[in-house]
Amino acid sequence: MKETKIGIIGFGTVGAGVAECLLKNGDAIAARTGVRPVLRRVADLDTVRDRGVKLPPGVLVNDAALILDDPEIDLVVELVGGTGAAREFIKKALAAGKSVVTANKALLSKHGAELAELADKSGADLYFEAAVGGGIPIIKALREGLAGDRIVEVAGILNGTCNYILTRMEKESAAFDGVLKAAQAAGFAEADPGLDIDGIDTAHKAAILASLAFGDWFGAEQVSVEGIRHVALKDIEYAAWLGYRIKLLAILKRAGDEVQLRVHPALIPCRSLLGHVDGVFNAVWVQGEPIGGTLYSGRGAGRDATASAVVADIIDCGLNLACGCRGRVPPLRRSPTFTRIQPMSELRSRYYIRLQVVDRPGVLAQYAGVFRDHNVSIASVTQKEEANPDHPVPLVIVTHEANEADTQAAVREIADLDIVSEYPVLLRIEDLA
Amino acid sequence: MKETKIGIIGFGTVGAGVAECLLKNGDAIAARTGVRPVLRRVADLDTVRDRGVKLPPGVLVNDAALILDDPEIDLVVELVGGTGAAREFIKKALAAGKSVVTANKALLSKHGAELAELADKSGADLYFEAAVGGGIPIIKALREGLAGDRIVEVAGILNGTCNYILTRMEKESAAFDGVLKAAQAAGFAEADPGLDIDGIDTAHKAAILASLAFGDWFGAEQVSVEGIRHVALKDIEYAAWLGYRIKLLAILKRAGDEVQLRVHPALIPCRSLLGHVDGVFNAVWVQGEPIGGTLYSGRGAGRDATASAVVADIIDCGLNLACGCRGRVPPLRRSPTFTRIQPMSELRSRYYIRLQVVDRPGVLAQYAGVFRDHNVSIASVTQKEEANPDHPVPLVIVTHEANEADTQAAVREIADLDIVSEYPVLLRIEDLA
């Protein structure tokens, strides 16, 4: 039986999960695919710490060069992370004609084009299923399963930490800060949570999905990003009352010849399937032609889900090696299907706006006048708490479809009115099926 | 650029959808994959009827032999359906070394092993994404995306007609018969609805998914099947009150060394993602090791969703032809991972049982005694309507985990009691996440 000789660089949590899966399911994989995955080397600077996986003797080494310079190794799995050493490892592996599997979303969303070009030149494979939505085979779906479709929209819950926080806020009627602290204590959020809750991690993944969906390499810096720090429990409650749930979404969408690449919290209908994806689960909704809407859901991160995705890529690369068809599905065959990225200011959307207003005569006329002056048409106004002339009360406005720049300008102007006690919260409404 | 020369046999609804997608998205597919799909022939006995698709001149012919005997054609798409002519077409195509794409679930669940063997011998590809869950790339997920996982359970809503009927019964508080008639009038159910509502179509699909999940070919006749005719509105309402929704499920599950292959209506938790899949949508929940739980949802049938799946297979086969790697992923590499199919009588499950009982003294003692004698332990009893000594009232029992044969025996015995006015309804409870 043919074999794939594998070297893993990075023996952290995911590396250990991949090694364990290969050792445990190796026989089954060989029987099922006809190619046996053989774990030849695992490189990590720390060769001492116990990862709970017993590697065969001699497999663990402390130098990545022992993998990169080993002519026997066909396939390098990069699990170091970051955009420094990882980039060099991958470049070296590709230059040596070795196939590469990586889970590195930060690297791909920054240097994807460069690495893809290298892979093209050397004829080697570059696979990256684990870079987006660990337990969800969404990369394969976009690269292969939907290859016959014109992708119209991708909407994804791509960050488990944010989804966990928003879900707990809702279920426990708890404020953001407390839930974040609890999430950090439970290991569901990092000590420095910015990468997650400011939407940066989601933007990395969004850039990769957008690249596949629209046929060109995008960087995370081309994605408009807003995190979830400004989402208050009050907003989650008002949204629920209006029939919506609030999720941090990556939205990649065609608007005529242009594409929108944006990451922000959004109100989505309670009845939508995406609205039921809770806790650390991730999900991606894809709208294609002719396929219609499809949804993929699973664990977005964690050792086992990510390991499964890496092993699926290892199998794909192994089959390509065994069948002599490397490069069968290149990382991305550039064929842009759009004219430009639509600036956020040109977005048209429905908006949820919460004002904290002093409730006294003439207030309605004031803010309503501002919206009118900016061409923003109000669809509904909700004021649930009792009017109190002394304390500001929340007032929730839902607009008809309006322009983003106009709406932001209206909100800025309203924020300056003395009837408003704090800067309004503005969230976009996405009418997903 | 390399080309895939395609012949489609069967120019019905799906055939027209495939032709349209190839003509419309062909350039994009060529740019994205590096291989151009070329529609060389479409064969159908009826060459006159307008399908709303304008084929290039000379493409439409009235004889499948013009495809099967054409040495230029690399790839045959079988969309005739049924287990007669379709089987001969596929055998002939494979014998001639042509790759085959089919959407024919009935044929695969009956003659899958034979066709796979033929494909193996000739080295040709046999792809069948559209056979299960049209708009859901679940076949590819099982064959490739989860190839590194040990599949523990597959639970699927695989029949749009049944899901549409059950959803409408619930949303409109309507009885089965009326909803079925409305579904027939609206074109969501066949004039002869048995294939759908008796679970046969679901069993075909279940057999195919089970084959991929557990590594051996299964036939639909090896699947225990129960349809939805006996599900009353009352049951849907009681289920909702207990926190469940009723769905027709295909359940393919390991039980120790054995596997369960069953299709029946089941109560699943309202909070589960599968519980929110409504109307004509299909969904498949897969539990694997190490991946955990993943869910795939989309339109299960219809021209466009099915066409998308067929075109994805055409692209895969085209890439294999272009890269000289046909047979890269065979239909099924036999490697059984189980000892036997567990007979339904050995199932252990929790049960929902609705009795229509005459409410008079001593009734409880009677049926409770029967359950006790059969080792079935009652978890809860619900009797919501007012007691009425003259009319039988519904009484809903939820059991703890019990054996199927025992529970069925208890129900048979209770049915014979004179306190019971009609044969009890027994449904299984599946605790999906």
Spell out the blueprint of helices and strands.
2 copies of one chain form a homodimer.
Chain A: E1 2-9, H1 13-33, E2 35-43, E3 60-61, H2 65-68, E4 75-78, H3 85-95, E5 99-102, H4 105-122, E6 126-127, H5 138-145, E7 150-157, H6 160-172, H7 176-186, H8 194-197, H9 200-214, E8 224-225, H10 233-241, E9 244-255, E10 258-269, E11 281-289, E12 292-299, H11 303-323, E13 348-358, H12 363-373, E14 378-382, E15 392-399, E16 402-403, H13 404-416, E17 425-429
Instruction: Please give the alpha-carbon distance between the first and last residues of chain A.
Output: 47 Å
Rg of chain A, Å, rounded: 24 Å
% residues in beta strands of chain A:
25-35%
Sheet/helix structural class of chain A: alpha/beta
Low-confidence stretches of chain A: none
User: What is the CATH level 1 assignment of the largest domain in chain A?
Assistant: Alpha Beta
Commentary on this structure:
2 copies of one chain form a homodimer. In chain A, 37% of the residues lie in helices and 26% in strands. The first copy, chain A, is of the alpha/beta class. Chain A folds into 3 domains: 2-135 and 303-323, Rossmann fold (3-Layer(aba) Sandwich); 138-298, Dihydrodipicolinate Reductase, domain 2, CATH 3.30.360; 344-429, Alpha-Beta Plaits, CATH 3.30.70. In chain A, strands 7, 8, 9, 10, 11, 12, 13, 14, 15, 16 and 17 form an 11-stranded mixed sheet that branches. Chain A has a 6-stranded parallel sheet with strand order 3-2-1-4-5-6, sandwiched between helices. In chain A, a hairpin with a 2-residue loop joins strand 11 and strand 12. In chain A, helix 3 packs parallel to helix 4 (105-122), helix 4 runs parallel beside helix 9 (200-214) and helix 6 packs across helix 7 (176-186). Chain A is elongated, with a radius of gyration of 24 Å. The first copy, chain A, starts with a strand and ends with a strand. The interface between A and B is large, with 65 and 65 residues.
